[in-house]
Amino acid sequence: MALEWLPREHEKKDHTLWGDEYFGAMDNPPCVVYEKKPIVDPKGNPVEGLYSAWIWLNNPRQYNSYTTEMVKGVISGMTNASADRSVVAVVFTGVGDRAFCTGGNTKEYAEYYSGRPTEYALYMDLFNGMVDSILDCKKPVICRANGMRVAGGQEIGGACDLCISSDLAIYGQAGPRHGSAPVGGSSDFLPWYLGIEDAMWNCISCEMWTAYKMFRKGYLSKVVPVLKDEDGNWVRNPQVITDEYVRDGEIAYGEFKTGDEFKKAREFVYNTSADFELLDKEVDKILWTFTNLFPNCLQMSIDSIRAKKKFFWDQGKLYYRHWLATNMSSEAFLGFHAFNTKKITGKDTIDFIKYRRLIDEAGLVNDEFMAEVLAKPKEE
C-alpha cells in the first residue's frame, strides 16, 4: 500500500557544524586540506555520486606536524565527512613522501606553549577533540601512512580503524626523549594491538620500528612497496630485512639492516622517488569493500570495535590534559626547546646525565638549572 498520504519533508537538511573555514589549499601550508574523491570500482571506473573524503595533513616541510589550526581542520574534516551522505569512508593521510605525521608542531610547542600551562591545557582540549573526532566519525577511517607515523602522529593514526602503510614508514614514540609522554592515545591503543611488553617498550624506548616489524606484530593491515628499480620493478624497502632469517638468535624479519648494507640501501632510498600507486590501489580496494556493505551495519560493526579503544581513552583523556599542561613548565619546556634549537646547538636533547645528577642534588628548577642541562649554541 502506498504511503503518499503521509506528510513528509523532502528537502535535505544540512547537518554540518562548520564550513570550510578550517581548511586550506595544497599550495598554502601549513593547513589541512579536505578533498572528496569518487569511489572507483575494481576496473578503475568512478562510481557516480559516491565519494571518499580525504583529509590531508599539509605541512611537509615540518613532517606534517600539526599546528593548532591544523588540529581544528582535522576535527572539521572528520565532522563534515560524518554528516555527508555521499561519503563512504574517510582517508586520513599526509602530503609528500616523508611523513604521515610526526605529532604536534615542536616549534609552536617550544615558542608558545612551553611555560604557559593554561594555554597548553586549552590546546589539549582541541587535541582531545581531534582524537575524539576520529573515534566518533560516522564513517570508517583509513590511515594512509605515506611515511613516518611518529609521536602524536602514531597516536592519531592509531585512532583510525585500519592502516595501509608505505614500507618506508617508521613507527614510534618520542615523548620520553623530548619532554612528554605518549598519553595522547598510544598508551591506550597500543596494548590492544601489541602484546603488553611490546606496547610498553614502544611507548617508552623512543625506538623507531619499521612498517614490516609493526605488520609482523599485528599493528598494520597491509604494507606495500613504494620504490621501483631502474627497470620499473617494485622494490621492497632495501633498508629492512624482509625475509625471515635469524640474527643473534632472534627472528630478524622487519628489523633494520646494519653496517655497509644499510648505508647502501639508505642511499638508494634517498635517491629514488616514492610512487604511491600500490598504496592507493590498496586503499581503493578497501573503499570498494565498504561501498558494497550495508552502511549502518558497517558502522555498527566499526563502532563496536572502536568501543574497546575508546574505553581506556575516555578514562584518561581529561586527567592526562592536566598533567601535560603542568609538564609544559618543566620537562616539556626543556625537551621542546632542546629540539627546537638543534640547528643552533647541534643537539636535539638535553644532557640527561647532568639532569639526573641535579635532581639527585635536590636542585631548584629555575633558569640556572635549565641552562645547566640545555646544550649551548655552537661556536661560529
Reconstruct the topology from this structure.
Elements: E1 31-40, E2 46-58, H1 68-83, E3 87-94, E4 99-101, H2 106-113, H3 117-135, E5 141-145, E6 148-150, H4 152-158, E7 162-166, E8 170-172, H5 175-178, H6 186-193, H7 196-205, E9 209-210, H8 211-216, E10 222-224, E11 227-228, E12 234-235, E13 246-247, E14 250-251, H9 259-270, H10 277-291, H11 295-327, H12 331-340, H13 342-345, H14 352-360, H15 367-373
Parallel strand pairs: 2-3, 3-5, 4-6, 5-7, 6-8, 7-10
Antiparallel strand pairs: 1-2, 8-9, 11-12, 13-14
Helix pairs in contact: 1-3, 2-12, 3-11, 6-7
Describe the structure.
The chain is of the alpha/beta class and 380 residues long. The chain folds into three domains: 31-226 and 274-327, 2-enoyl-CoA Hydratase, Chain A, domain 1; 237-272, no CATH class; 341-373, no CATH class. 44% of the residues lie in helices and 17% in strands. The chain has 15 helices and 14 strands. It has helices at residues 68-83, 106-113, 117-135, 152-158, 175-178, 186-193, 196-205, 211-216, 259-270, 277-291, 295-327, 331-340, 342-345, 352-360, 367-373, and strands spanning 31-40, 46-58, 87-94, 99-101, 141-145, 148-150, 162-166, 170-172, 209-210, 222-224, 227-228, 234-235, 246-247, 250-251. The strands form four sheets. It has a six-stranded mixed sheet, with helices on both faces. Strand 13 (246-247) and strand 14 form a beta hairpin. Helix 1 (68-83) packs parallel to helix 3. The longest helix has 33 residues, at 295-327. The relative contact order is 0.11. The model has no long low-confidence stretch (mean pLDDT 94).
